[in-house]
Design brief:
binds zinc ion, 13 strands, 5-stranded mixed beta sheet, alpha/beta, 344 residues, 6-stranded mixed beta sheet, Nucleotidyltransferase, domain 5
Length: 344
């Protein structure tokens, strides 16, 4: 995604000590990135990043998160000499199912070893306090939820009342944002579109262990797996290369790409009929694919949807890698604005 998609402003005289600044942090399986964000959602200063110690255990993860937050605060001070960089809260978007109120990871895949059960808010608060930043409010949410919150606030969904967000990349995730609030549901998984059973995906293995789900046919690794299973060139390493082959006329590559898009179009038609959003925003690696993927997606959606819902647009996300940082920051701003400064 475009690293520069989100305007990043240098510090200036308007960035006074009274401007609430928060740290937004996007925690992925291979990399984490963070930046100072102001109350308007504008990134202040540069984005700092580091690799994720995904298999070194939760303590190492919390150490790295806290170190990156400190780095962002320190570099903010350096970029604005003479101006106090006072951070009001920290917002984190992370892989996994998150108990937002409890500040902990409920479940997670093997992408981050031992992440399930981690009390992320308490762990980060402790470390930041030891580092001299005081007891900061810390907000944590699922990374796709953070992404959706960013896009709904200032990106492709800006101004819309109901935004259905779908992320299609290594997996398939989603989130539902209504009037600026991400709806997490009764079991913290609202919007998890990847595990919707969808016609066309019958028999395809899904990462959750149950066959026939959308993710089993639509996600990038599944496109690659199906390409190889159907007799595609064995030296093709990933879905991106399958896309290149499809563009170059490889029939098997074209079919598995089309299957991915058609199944997503069907699933979206079903979800949209229940939710009736203003807009559907698509992010992730597949959203960067060309007409090869977008055309069958839109055609299938148009063919399945009832007339009153036909005007609903399916559009790509616009904030790029800044979206989850901005979205996590929004959660932090909300927390900083409340008196709930000492959540467990
Ligand atoms: Zn599944």
């Amino acid at each position: 995604m475009n690293q520069d998609a989100r305007p990043s402003a240098p510090f200036n005289s308007s960035s006074s000590g009274e401007t609430p600044l928060v740290v937004g942090l996007d925690l992925g399986g291979t990399k984490m990135a963070a930046a100072l964000v102001d109350a308007d959602g504008v990134l202040r200063g540069s984005v700092a990043s580091c690799s994720t110690p995904a298999h070194d255990g939760p303590a190492a993860m919390l150490d790295s998160i806290s170190a990156l937050v400190q780095q962002v605060v320190t570099s903010g001070t350096r970029e604005a000499p003479g101006l106090p960089v006072s951070v009001a809260a920290v917002g984190i978007g992370t892989a996994g199912v998150v108990d937002v109120e409890g500040g902990m990871i409920l479940s997670a895949t093997d992408a981050i070893t031992g992440w399930a059960g981690t009390r992320i808010v308490a762990g980060v608060q402790e470390r930041l306090a030891v580092a001299g930043l005081g007891v900061l409010p810390v907000h944590v949410e699922n990374d796709v939820d953070a992404y959706a919150a960013g896009e709904a606030w200032l990106g492709a969904g800006a101004g819309a009342e109901v935004v259905l967000m779908v992320a299609v990349g290594t997996g398939v995730g989603g989130a539902l944002v209504i009037e600026g609030r991400t709806r997490r549901g009764a079991h913290h998984v609202a919007g998890e579109i990847g595990h919707v059973p969808v016609p066309g995906a019958q028999g395809e293995p899904c990462t959750c262990g149950r066959p026939g789900h959308l993710e089993g046919i639509t996600a990038g690794p599944q496109i690659h797996r199906r390409y190889l299973e159907k007799g595609g060139a064995p030296d093709v390493p990933d879905a991106r290369e399958v896309e290149k082959r499809a563009t170059a006329g490889d029939g098997i590559a074209q079919k598995v790409y089309r299957d991915s898009a058609v199944c997503l179009g069907r699933a979206l038609a079903g979800l949209v009929t229940v939710i009736d959003p203003d807009v559907v925003v698509v992010s992730g690696g597949l959203a960067r694919a060309g007409d090869l993927w977008w055309e069958p997606l839109r055609q299938t959606f148009a063919a399945e949807i009832i007339d009153p819902l036909a005007p609903i647009k399916i559009i790509p996300a616009t904030l790029g890698t800044a979206a989850p940082i901005v979205g996590a920051a929004r959660g932090a701003l909300a927390l900083a604005g409340s008196n709930d400064n000492h959540r467990p």
